[in-house]
Amino acid sequence: MDNIYIEYDFRISPKEPATEILVAELGEVGFESFVENETGMLAYIQKNDWFENILDDIFILNSDEFEIEYDFHEVAQTNWNEEWEKNFEPIEVDDLVSIRAPFHENPHLKYEIIIEPKMSFGTGHHETTHMMIQHLLELNLENKKVLDMGCGTGILAIFAEIKGAKPIDAIDIDEWCYTNSIENIERNNCSNITVYQGDASLLIDKKYDVIIANINRNILLEDMKTYAKCLEKDGILLLSGFYEDDLPIIDKEALKNNLKLHKTETRNQWLSGHYKKQ
Question: Cα dist. 185→113, 132, 165 in Å?
């Protein structure tokens, strides 16, 4: 007999970083799958695991920073691949990079990344991931040692390998992201990426030519000193996950750690920065 699921329809404003936080919190109480859409996301939990007050301890629902409305209803077992086909559109970055799911047609651009996101974030749809790919397009990564911090689906680590980087470390604190990154790395036939589950404490005594950190403002500020210590001389730090208005505080912390802003990209009020170690 098919499993019965409860589907929650969350309308979220602004969508980021609220969506990512909400996914993490819902995962802790038993939600299995998430599908992003234009207004927010759908979240699914098996009826057997559901109870009436399941959202009582979801902190972000009571946050003044975001407006989140939702309703829910019972659904029969969901075909997740079908849901992705309906909601995950292929993306092209600067007519050079194709990001698609396995079921999408190949547009035959210069670079191709195949991603099946499951419960992880980082499909290229989000402005920050899109901008990070633009930064990586401009860099010579041949034989560069790279770190993808907060790797999500592994998309940026995968693209770094496609551009010739090796070896590459990919780190995420979330178990779903860790597992999904490994799956996507195998799917793209990558052989130079090692995935770890954890945080910046894993970086002791590590050194990189390029560090990619697409996380959020607070974590970037907290870990900036660690990133700077891990960079080789003249190393490059790519940061994103914050708004244009956050640049002064990010820049101030970067300068304290001998990191000088070289270039920025902006997209729908989101900003990414290319920093060089002095």
Answer: 10, 18, 14
Other CB atoms within 10 A of residue 191 CB = 9
Buried b (16+ CB within 10 A) or exposed e, 138-170: ebebeebbbbbbbbbbbbbbbbbbbbebbebbb
Same fold, 4-84 and 122-277: no
Q: What is the domain partition of the chain in residue ranges?
A: 4-84, 122-277
User: Of 92, 91, 106, 196, which is closest to residue 154 (Cα–Cα)?
Assistant: 196
Flag whether pLDDT at 54 surpasses 90. Answer: yes
1 confidence band (pLDDT: 50, 70, 90): very low
| Strand stretches in 133-258, DSSP E | 146-149, 168-172, 193-197, 208-214, 231-243
Q: 57-103 pLDDT, tens per residue?
A: 999 998 998 999 999 998 765 555 555 556 677 889 999 999 988 87
How many whole angstroms from its chain centre is CA 129?
7
- Whole-angstrom distance, CA of residue 157 vs CA of residue 213: 11
**Mean per-residue pLDDT, 19-39:** 85
What architecture does CATH give domain 4-84? 2-Layer Sandwich (3.30)
Closest CA to 29 of 15, 46, 12: 46
Reported as a pLDDT band with limits 50, 70 and 90, residue 200 is very high
Cα radius of gyration (the chain): 19
Identify the CATH homologous superfamily for domain 122-277: Vaccinia Virus protein VP39 (3.40.50.150)
Verdict on whether the full-model pTM lies above 0.85: no
